[in-house]
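Key result, reporting period 2: structure in, sequence out.
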């Protein structure tokens, strides 16, 4: 599916639900409601969501979340972007229930706008937002509040009233079509769901996801499910704050060999199905890859699934059938103290035609400039942790097919 919802102004935690009005019956407001008699562990707990989907052929991972009272179940693709929730809702319901609206004087609203663009002529005016995506998609809407039930890993269920975006004018880029209701982004910022839960004292501002190469996985907010050892940590680079998650510049290795490509600006992006290198890194990597395949039982295939595909003597059934012909790629951060290894199964797919295709693409060709995105394909079977409390990002190989024992959702 390629890029999904690249926000040109920064990658911060939000949800934008691109659904029909009939799929969600109004952005209704409701009072904060506790939905179980158990007590929360507060900032020591985690909220857990089960993930569904895969890189190929589905093209994305998504979670299911309940919103409102009465509750509506919506499915949301994981991405990086700038608001908490949004959807095509029944705006007449909003006009009647004004207490659902976030007003423009609130700090949360101000955080969505650069100073020159921020206008609040009347303190009771609604908070409008407009998001432009790098893939030429966009969303126009308003901020509202409603119940968003969350289940903790200890079994407690709460229904805090959280602010989120209610989109009424959505433009999707060509080819970016999915049957889900919208998107659920992972990031940091005042308007994000995780930040709102943190401000209520309910969780730590920590996000983790584990996407299975087979299908599915899990997502959590809070620090309870972070492993106590074995994680490779790297400090978040300063531009990560309120924008995107970057472990800083990296040096690119092909196997154990340095490619000579250094100081690559890296972003971890769950909003991209595939991984994107800038032109130089891509060309160097591709040249080394093609050289290593000389003499191997693979030939270039006429397969339009991705930019480059190879066929064998007979159709492949799994990446495991062909991974021995390819070489791991490594990104080395922070003076080689932190390394992310990307094995062949984390940059290859097998197409519906039985060919093996390269899931590392040229980002410069699609307008990413010098940016390098580490997408879902390269984060599979990794527990990735974005610790906004300690300003660090971590990863560890994991079995993403097993949900944490302490709890699952949807609620």
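The corresponding designed sequence is given below.
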């Amino acid at each position: 599916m390629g890029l999904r919802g690249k926000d040109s102004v920064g990658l911060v935690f939000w949800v934008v639900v691109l659904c029909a009005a009939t799929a969600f019956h109004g952005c209704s407001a409701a009072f904060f409601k506790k939905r179980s008699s158990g007590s929360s562990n507060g900032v020591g707990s985690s909220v857990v969501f089960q993930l569904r989907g895969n890189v190929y052929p589905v093209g994305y991972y998504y979670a299911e979340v309940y919103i409102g009272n009465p509750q509506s179940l919506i499915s949301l693709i994981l991405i990086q972007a700038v608001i908490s929730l949004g959807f095509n809702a029944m705006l007449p319901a909003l006009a009647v229930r004004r207490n659902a609206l976030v007003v423009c004087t609130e700090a949360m609203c101000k955080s969505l706008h650069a100073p020159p663009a921020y206008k609040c002529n009347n303190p009771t005016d609604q908070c409008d937002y407009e998001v432009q995506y790098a893939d030429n998609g966009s969303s126009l809407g308003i901020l509202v509040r409603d119940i968003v039930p969350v289940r903790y890993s200890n079994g407690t269920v709460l229904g805090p009233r959280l602010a989120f975006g209610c989109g009424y004018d959505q433009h999707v880029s060509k080819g970016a079509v999915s049957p889900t209701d919208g998107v659920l982004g992972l990031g940091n910022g005042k308007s994000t769901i995780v930040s709102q839960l943190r401000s209520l004292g309910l969780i730590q501002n920590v996000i983790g996801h584990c996407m299975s190469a087979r299908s599915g996985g899990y997502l959590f907010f809070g620090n309870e499910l972070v492993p106590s050892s074995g994680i490779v940590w790297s400090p978040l680079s300063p531009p990560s704050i309120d924008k995107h998650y970057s472990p800083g510049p990296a040096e690119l290795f092909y196997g154990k060999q340095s490619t000579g490509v250094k100081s690559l600006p890296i972003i971890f992006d769950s909003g991209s199905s595939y991984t994107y290198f800038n032109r130089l890194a891509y060309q160097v990597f591709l040249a080394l890859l093609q050289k290593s395949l000389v003499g191997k039982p693979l030939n270039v295939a006429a397969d339009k699934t991705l930019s480059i595909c190879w066929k064998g003597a007979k159709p492949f059934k799994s990446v495991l059938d062909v991974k021995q012909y390819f070489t791991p790629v490594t990104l080395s951060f922070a003076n080689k103290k932190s390394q992310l290894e990307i094995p062949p199964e984390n940059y290859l797919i097998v197409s519906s035609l039985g060919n093996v295709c390269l899931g590392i693409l040229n980002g410069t060709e699609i307008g990413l400039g010098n940016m390098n995105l580490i997408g879902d394909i390269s984060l599979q079977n990794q527990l990735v942790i974005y610790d906004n409390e300690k300003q660090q990002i971590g990863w560890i190989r994991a079995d993403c097919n097993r949900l944490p024992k302490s709890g699952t959702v949807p609620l």
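Residues 4-41, 88-96, 406-411 have pLDDT under 50 and may be disordered. Residues 279-292 form the longest helix (14 residues). This case is discussed further under Risks and Mitigation.
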